[in-house]
């Protein structure tokens, strides 16, 4: 009995300390689960070409498209990343991003953040977006750092996530029935909709908390992997030690058909993965560093990929990584985003993640109401 009192005390105070952060992160998490689908649905003029080209049509050279996008930016702004879509009805997205990691507020965190949407077959610029003011970008930053910048907000969200993980574990201890009798089992697994407001609220907190437990722990664990890179590295290294060495992949010869390494590399990868969902390119500033091109094979899945690294002097492959040949720890780390947003199993697991996140958002509210009712009752007794 004394043990449960201590657990209850810990559960109560951790909940009161981190409740508001958990509420905000969980609600924004609901939107983050479907942010890709919602963006395509709400702004098709950015992401789709009105008249898709023929399947035999070839895109303009990437270096030319970068130059076209660059002209749409202000002085001092520079394209740093490109998102390429093999589908013939999609625009290509050219990102220009610079951040101030020491900023305290979101308004100062991005020095600039823009996206230029270009028809890759005609070179026509469709939209130039100030992504800093994009709704989904603001929601994402609210989710990751409460709009308080990376140094401050990231720290608060990270430790609130630790508290949330402890809340999940202490919550299951408090939920656990004293005796597994038919009546106690029914009370623990079902909500009494016709009960008093206090009892109904208690059931919402207790029962829904139990049903969402596994998802909540998964959100917490994967969230900690994002918040604390050292934690992610430690988990990855530990799991890698249980696995054999990473399989080596033979590097094929890359024909040099284009004048630049970037154009040639992209054409080579597009030929190899014409049915891929998306390619992502972070433009390297230093020619001594290999130019990477990431291939996302499946829609909404970042954990199924190829990484091609091209030597910027010779144009040949320097390294080739695939999700198929990773060690256990590296494989788990690569699946972190898919696990966090529920895309690991497609649309059905995303729907489950959405509702589980919604339940997680409700727990601080119902928990606070439970505490408030007890607080008022305690004060009333003292007044007497």
Automatic annotation (TrEMBL):
Pfam families: PepSY_TM (PF03929)
Organism domain of life: Bacteria
Keyword S-adenosyl-L-methionine set for record: no
Transmembrane feature ranges: 152-176, 207-231, 351-372
Residues spanning the signal sequence: none
Keyword Membrane in record: yes
InterPro entries given in the database record: PepSY-ass_TM
Keywords: Membrane, Transmembrane, Transmembrane helix
Protein name: Membrane protein
Species whose genome carries this gene: Flavobacterium palustre
């Amino acid at each position: 009995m004394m043990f449960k009192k201590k657990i209850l005390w810990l559960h109560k105070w951790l909940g009161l300390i981190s409740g508001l952060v958990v509420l905000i992160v969980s609600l924004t998490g609901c939107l983050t689960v479907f942010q890709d689908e919602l963006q395509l649905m709400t702004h098709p003029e950015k992401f789709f070409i009105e008249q898709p080209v023929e399947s035999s049509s070839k895109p303009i050279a990437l270096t030319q498209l970068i130059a076209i996008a660059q002209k749409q930016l202000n002085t001092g702004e520079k394209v740093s990343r490109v998102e390429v879509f093999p589908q013939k009805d999609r625009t290509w997205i050219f990102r220009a991003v610079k951040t101030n990691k020491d900023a305290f507020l979101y308004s100062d965190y991005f020095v600039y953040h823009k996206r230029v949407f270009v028809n890759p077959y005609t070179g026509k610029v469709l939209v130039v977006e100030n992504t800093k003011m994009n709704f989904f970008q603001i929601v994402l930053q609210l989710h990751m750092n409460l709009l308080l910048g990376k140094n401050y907000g990231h720290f608060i969200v990270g430790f609130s996530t630790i508290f949330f993980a402890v809340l999940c574990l202490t919550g299951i201890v408090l939920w656990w029935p004293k005796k597994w009798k038919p009546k106690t089992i029914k009370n623990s697994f079902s909500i009494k909709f016709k009960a008093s407001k206090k009892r109904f609220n208690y059931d919402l907190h207790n029962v829904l908390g139990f049903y969402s437990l596994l998802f909540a722990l998964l959100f917490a664990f994967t969230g900690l992997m994002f918040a604390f890179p050292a934690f992610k590295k430690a988990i990855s290294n530990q799991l890698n030690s249980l696995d054999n060495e990473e399989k080596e992949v033979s590097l094929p010869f890359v024909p040099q058909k284009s004048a630049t390494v970037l154009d040639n590399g992209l054409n080579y990868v597009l030929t190899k993965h014409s049915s891929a969902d998306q390619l992502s390119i972070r433009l390297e500033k230093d020619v001594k560093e290999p130019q990477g091109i990431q291939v996302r094979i499946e829609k909404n899945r970042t954990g199924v990929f190829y990484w091609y690294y091209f030597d910027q002097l010779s144009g040949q492959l320097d390294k080739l990584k695939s999700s198929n040949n990773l060690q256990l720890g590296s494989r788990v780390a690569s699946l972190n985003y898919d696990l966090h947003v529920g895309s690991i199993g497609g649309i059905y697991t995303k729907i489950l993640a959405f509702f589980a996140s919604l339940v997680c958002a409700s727990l601080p509210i119902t928990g606070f109401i439970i505490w408030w009712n007890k607080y008022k009752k305690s004060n009333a007794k003292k007044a007497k």
